[in-house]
């Protein structure tokens, strides 16, 4: 197992449920719909996906997106 140390960030956390495709659609909507209207920009850190079960048909997860407040 590899360990990755991620520096402190601000995260927007989205909950998702469904198939791999529906989780990918959630991520797409975050990037194309939520970020442009949120007042935030994409941060300089990796996205994190936390899966609470490994069911390929009905997975429950959180998608953590690093964000920084836009300068006005």
Q: What structural keywords apply?
A:
72 residues, alpha+beta, four-stranded antiparallel β-sheet, 1 helix, flat, AraC-family transcriptional regulator
Walkthrough of the structure:
- This is AraC-family transcriptional regulator.
- InterPro entries: GyrI-like, Reg_factor_effector_dom_sf.
- It holds the Pfam family GyrI-like.
- 26% of the residues lie in helices and 38% in strands.
- The chain has 72 residues and is of the alpha+beta class.
- It has one domain (10-69).
- Strands 1, 2, 3 and 4 form a four-stranded antiparallel sheet that branches.
What sequence of helices (H) and strands (E) makes up the elements?
EHEEE
Based on secondary structure, the structural category is: alpha+beta
Q: Please state roughly what percent of the residues sit in beta strands, choosing from under 5%, 5-15%, 15-25%, 25-35%, 35-45% or over 45%.
A: 35-45%
Unreliable stretches (pLDDT < 50, length at least 5) are: none
Number of helices: 1
Q: Please compute the radius of gyration using only Cα atoms.
A: 13 Å
Total strand segments: 4
Based on CA inertia axes, which overall geometry fits? flat
Helix content: 25-40%
What is the rounded distance between the termini?
Answer: 42 Å
**What would the average pLDDT be, to the nearest integer?**
92
Oligomeric form: single chain
- Count of domain modules: 1
Describe the sheet with the most strands. 4 strands, antiparallel
